[in-house]
Amino acid sequence: MSKPIKQIHLAAHFPGVNNTTVWSDPSSGSHIDFDSFVHFAQTAERGKFDFLFLAEGLRLREQGGQIYDLDVVGRPDTFTVLAALAAVTDRLGLTGTINSTFNEPYEVARQFASLDQLSGGRAAWNVVTSWDAFTGENFRRGGFLPEDQRYERAESFLEAAHTLFDSWRGDEIVADKANGVFVSDARAGEFSYRDAHFDISGRFNVPRSPQGRPVIFQAGDSDHGREFAAAAADAIFSRHGTLEEGQKFFADVKGRLAKYGRRHDQLLILPAATFVLGDSDAEAADLAHEVRLAQVSPQTAIKFLEQLWNRDLSDHDPDGPLPTVDPIVGENTIARGRASVRMHRDPIATANEWRAKAEAEGLSSRELIIEVTGRQNFIGSAATIAESINHLVQADASDGFILVPHVTPGGLDPFVDRVVPLLQERGVFRADYEGTTLRDHLGLDVPDPSGAQHPTAVTG
Fold first, then answer.
1. Which of 61, 115, 134, 386 could form a disulfide with 336 if both were Cys (CB 3.0 to 4.6 A apart)?
2. Around Cβ 88, how many Cβ atoms within 10 Å?
């Protein structure tokens, strides 16, 4: 029996929290003006994408005691942006990244439940944790948590939020056009949740939305993160987008689902991916080279080197070889609060790997950074990109992709205009929305408010 053809899931990531954005492009626009968000969201909806993904940071970027001015340093509040976008879109899902380390379950659950209601069941929550004291300084609790405790709190946080979402079964509301809306069950919204992290009880005042509760995303790649996703997430925002690495990640995470009583189709794997589209593959390759040079300027290359070497390299020549000195190892890093720091578990080993690669391929410092910081890219003509995306999805390297254009807000338009029609012709991507909620778009079940389908939380 032949394997069924999979339908591709596509989403759009509004860029701008790192050096992905090419500011020097003449078509580059604002990352704060609402018109930019509207254009981007409406383009994604025109392309029948599943959802828009919005990242959020809780701090300004800092490196060496200075504001890191080579990245976008701030963005309007996630809930405010997504709620506003709900009014100018009809079907597009709205995914926000909200922290579980420094927020509280009732507040976050109420905000997402409100967004879900106002959008007609299109909200999703990307659950993240914070690992550094730099972010913690912005909050009363301050400090930071070790990895195992961060995930333990996140699991507890999500369970508490689910308890709040499910405190309404969905049948407690009675609508009477003459007399208004009233609650028919005295227990509606009643909740109680107690564990080592939270001790809360009371009444949750936002009823269930058409999709039951918001879709849950998770972006962690550690073993804790993968287990958390298998237990409690609906989708993973992954960085494993190549064929071999994607298949390994796909098999690993999906293989963890059975012990939580879950099917393979109850968790979607969606890697981030950039793209450069040209009239031919050769033209696209030339454009991609120019994009990477713009994304990794000489100054940006030095900043990336400093994040690994943990020392001031402002006098280093980015067009010369890598530094000959070894990185300084320790907790006090030159790049406080930057996510890339935690990716280097062994800085000296990583530096040696980079040196070996640079020597073998004849790469300068900047050229090396361009190589090692590149994401999964789709580069080519519209036909080539459509074929590549479909091949990876059908080969179980992913269930689809979250696309990150390098120009805002119009960078998604060429993909929607030229690649999406080819995927539709192949019959692997929808010609129109078939449902109204994000769970409809993703093919996910509506959760049982009784808690019967609740996965058990992972204990750290």
1. 134
2. 13
